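Lab notebook, bench 4. Still working through the backlog of constructs that have no structural model yet. Next entry is a single chain of 325 residues. Request: give me the structure tokens for it.
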Amino acid sequence: MLLPLRPAVQQTQHVQVVLALTLRKPSSTYLQRYSTYDKPDKKHEEEVENERLEPHPEEISATSSVHQVFHEKGVEEPEKDVDMLAGVKSDFKTIKETFALNEVPREALTIGLAGVLPYLATSLTTVYLAFDINHVNSAGTTFFFSQEVAEQLLHIIEPLQIGYGAVIISFLGAIHWGLEWAEYGGKHGYRRYAYGVVAPAVAWPTILFPIEYALITQFCAFTFLYFADARAVMRGWAPSWYSTYRFVLTFVVGASIVASLVGRGQIWDQINKLPSPADRIQRLRDIQYEAFEEEEREKMRRKVDEDEAEDEEEVEEEGSDEDDE
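Model written out:
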């Protein structure tokens, strides 16, 4: 019986499949190629085969067949002591790394730390003088200065601390002008120049404030400038180490201001209040007004004297005329 002829397309596909199977390499070739990577170590196998197993009955227990996940089988690990101060040590390590300032140039670090010494010295002196005045009022004796001398020194130190703080705040703002001129991080124009304008505009009016308001205002100014400098570092407008450097210096200055405020708060009712610059200006105006009034009164007295002298001369002239008649 003759089979029907297949279509030409099916015959062509059948021939292609047969050729593909005949031309494919035998699988033994691939096995030979990759068998070199998985050869058994016969020497090691012979050593393991000849090794004699030693019995350990002491390791047999009700749980000896349980596989230990976190330690070796049959070996009890000692309990580990929990370090209760691990968190505190980690915090101290973070603080140490923060205050290390390894990336800060040595010259900038030295001059910066030297720059906060006057502020720190005036603050510590304020605290000591306040303690001395308190000790006089409570115990009746003093250590080095009398109450009058301590009060006078305190009034001398106050404007020094405020004036020096105004200078430092202005300097911190001027740094951004230098960075703009150096084109550090590119040119930013008025946005960066604004730091150098706002800082002295806030700092210098504080020399006219009462001491407590001046210290609080300067504390806020130092804090604001620190956050502004940190933001400038994030934007790439300042070196990467500048924010850490500013944090350390701002921390010292801020602590000094707080110490001064605390010291003055202990003796605010025990000393005569030193007049502020605004009070001095008002007093100067009053003196000038009083001098002007005195000058006017003197002019009036002179005019009255002159009028009286003229009247007397007229009376004398009239008397002489009558005598002649």
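Notes after review: Residues 150 and 245 are 35 Å apart (CA to CA). Confidence is low (pLDDT under 50) at residues 1-15, 17-37. Flag for follow-up if needed.
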